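Hi support team,

I submitted a single chain yesterday and got back a structure, but I'm not sure I'm reading the token output correctly. Could someone confirm the output below corresponds to the sequence I sent? I've pasted both exactly as they appear in my results page.

Thanks,
R.
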Amino acid sequence: VCILRTPYYASEGERWTFERWSHGPADECVTLATPGTYRAVLNHELLLQIKSAVNSEQRSLWAPFGVPLALEVPASVNEGESTRYRFSRWSEGHTPFLTNNVILPFKPSIVEVTWVKEHLVTLQGPEGVSLQGRGWHAEGADVAVQAVDTVPAQSSGERLKFAVWESLEHPPAVLPNAKN
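Hi R., thanks for writing in. Yes, this is the structure output for that exact sequence:
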């Protein structure tokens, strides 16, 4: 008696795959030496699609029906030196706000991973001048950068006075109020 190892599809998102025969063997063909009831044991699987703005975290897989499935993504994914995606949440699951999540597949599903796109803001100024606002900031967010108005210069009787912020990027970042 033989069974084909190819999956049996109920739909494009649901299938059954051969696991073993009820009397134990995992071979697709068996010789039955004694009378009795023999059945093929099949695994019920559902298609799970992971959607993500981060291409490396986008995938699809066949998951066992009703069996808890652990999913995990990194806390952040770099896209070059000054852009990254920071994990925000899963669209469903037991722990949607953690990078590691568990879902129970009971139907073919699409699970989405949401990310916040961030850019690294670096500030350059004269040595010894305190600048605030550097770090990772969400795309489109307003960023407050600060520099002290005046600082003493290296020689007495001189000082450095803040003049204007300039973007060193090309194309330059939009600075709506470069003097403040």
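A quick pointer for reading it: The two ends are 83 Å apart (CA to CA). Let us know if anything else looks off.

Best,
Support desk
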